[in-house]
Write a structure and sequence with these properties.
Number of strands: 15
Order of helices and strands: HEEEEEEEEEHEEEEEEH
Strand content: 35-45%
Helix content: 10-25%
Low-confidence stretches: 6-26
Largest sheet: 15 strands, mixed
Mean pLDDT: 88
Distance between the termini: 83 Å
Radius of gyration: 21 Å
Structural class: alpha+beta
Amino acid sequence: MKNIITKKLVYLMGFLLLGLGMSASLMAQEAGKIMRVTGKATVSSASNQTKEAAKDDVINAGDTITSSKESQVLIRMKDNSSLLVRADSKIKIAAFQFENKPTDNTKTTVLAGTLRAVSGSIGKGQPDNVKYEAGTATIGIRGTDIEVAIVEEGAKDRAGIYNYVYDGETVMALNTGEKANVEKELTGFTPAKLLPGEPRLQILRDRPAFLQIGGFDALINQLTAPRIPMMR
């Protein structure tokens, strides 16, 4: 009798776990697709399942994209925004909801390395609902084409968090309460180690050394360029 009860409990737990797994997959909001990959990169789901990144793979909310030193990943989001995961980077799609409603939102976290991001429909319609996070900094947007980087010690640039603006404007805010508007072709910066008397949040006019333009950047420019109607 005990064996029968035990078997039933095992079957019941199995069905419950299966149901939870299906619910989690159904709840995962499709955020976009991988357009291009060079080198080796991986995609890890919210349930810690990892696979090699490949062209046309679906990216869901909660996924983390990790690139190697010789890799880049270009993602086209469902709202027609673009994310370029630079080499040796780790980026998480922390949240994404796109239903052509005022509640649409997206949040992307730079865990390591560098991300270029160009706004799509959510950024144009609900800019306050678009956020980028990197360490102690949160970046809000106004229209934009930006680069967000966490630079470690030993690089050409000083170690810290960088927010370069190609186009538009951002608001860079620290968890200490400091805020600064970062305009086109300027860089918001918070150093990893403060010097005596140095402000925690700075605006740099010199272009950071980590900005490296490659083939995927040209593709982003093609994707985001306004289309000119053909003359007939």
